[in-house]
Amino acid sequence: MNWLILFVAGLFEIGWAIGLKYTEGFTRLWPSIGTVASMVVSVVLLGIAMKTLPVGTAYAVWVGIGAVGTAILGMVLLGDAASTGRLVSLGLIVAGVIGLKLATPV
């Protein structure tokens, strides 16, 4: 169950990372409220998941989900470059996250 909680925490990390772009430096009210709410939910869920998961694994997986998801949404929503190097690098992050999941006995 804590792996699912960690995954959802990673999704909320993606939400706040992308949300930062839409806050325009926290000058827009509703995007700012949504972004801050996503930050809080993400960190609270990460903390819950860390009750049983190793801290290094949980944090690395959380960051990996956030980094990959944010980069992909940046390409899809914001027109960020989707070069071969970026895509291969994202694949390596995904491989690392999967490796951590498989190597963690919890």
Automatic annotation (TrEMBL):
Membrane topology per record: Multi-pass membrane protein
Membrane-spanning parts: 29-50, 57-78, 84-103
Pfam families recorded: Multi_Drug_Res
Cell compartments where the protein resides: Cell membrane
Family under the similarity heading: Belongs to the drug/metabolite transporter (DMT) superfamily. Small multidrug resistance (SMR) (TC 2.A.7.1) family. Gdx/SugE subfamily.
PANTHER family in the cross-refs: GUANIDINIUM EXPORTER, SMR FAMILY PROTON-DEPENDENT DRUG EFFLUX TRANSPORTER SUGE
Name of the protein in its database record: Guanidinium exporter
Species the sequence originates in: Polaromonas aquatica
